[in-house]
Amino acid sequence: MDSETAQRKILAxxxxxxxxxxAFRVERPSGNAGGLAQIWDALxxxxxxxxxxxxxxxxxxxxxxxxxxxxxxxxxxxxxAWRKLKLRRNRPVSPPASITSG
Length: 102
Fold this sequence. Notes:
With 102 residues, this protein is mostly helical. It has helices at 2-16, 35-90.
């Protein structure tokens, strides 16, 4: 008898530790509210979209700036070297001066 009572206490203790909470929330569709309600919803959401786009733009610019610090001088140096090389190739070769007596 005592073992059954102890067993019941153990099972009661185990079941007390389990708790489940379920909450349901019903969202009303705005499609039945009419055209103006949808327009107001779109206007309300536009602020959030503008904020997200601005945040993405700032992140992109901040990610590009360090690369520009490396790329712009490298392109400038390559262009300068290219111009020098091009000038050397396009320089006319003057024939050697011949000494004529006469």
